[in-house]
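To whoever picks this up:

The parser on our side crashed when reading a file containing two proteins. I've narrowed it down to the boundary between the first structure block and the second sequence. Both blocks are reproduced below exactly, byte for byte. First block:
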Amino acid sequence: MDTQLDIFKALANESRIQILEWLKNPEAHFSPQEGIDLVEVGVCVGQITLKLNMNQSTTSQYLSILHRAGLISAKRIGKWTYYKRNEDAINQIGRYLQKGE
């Protein structure tokens, strides 16, 4: 996992947090994609862009920040990139925060 600072910087944006929330249960937030399991493979950047109601450049930048922080993983299939949450990393953050109590 990247440094805690990178993680907290990635989480310092409401839209990036929203992306993580949507990716927690992608079937509830995104339309099915032919031949793609939203849970196992992830969600196409195009669908995330539409849901955010932002341009693809901004969405890609947000996804890149989350990816560099280790909070999501990316999988390229053909010309499309699919993103899903890195549950292990997110659980590690939770454990890190609980240590502070």
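<<boundary where parser fails>>
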Amino acid sequence: MAWMGAAHLLMPRPFDTLVPERLPGRARWWTYASGVAELACAAAVAHPRTRRAGALATAGLMAAVFPANIKMARDWRHRSLPLRAVAYGRLPLQVPLIGWALYVAREAD
């Protein structure tokens, strides 16, 4: 989460293309907002006192960004096989990541 959050802030252009057009405002705003949210979730999960809330927020964030993963898969459907594999592989990967976040929330002290 921390690495991807930092990537959103340091290299925002590739993430801008993943923002669904239906969202209001500029794509860059959503890119930065999601990067900050990922950094905040990572920080919250890292600290024992905020781990439960951070893990629940992480699960919610991963569910909230799923439409961007769908958009990426749709947009990349005509790219090379390795790039399509990355785009399509992200879709089912969200399920265990959300499960992991919920597990961390349950196990947090």
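After patching the parser it read the second block fine. DSSP finds six helices and no strands in the chain. The helical segments are 2-10, 13-16, 27-46, 51-64, 66-75, 81-107.
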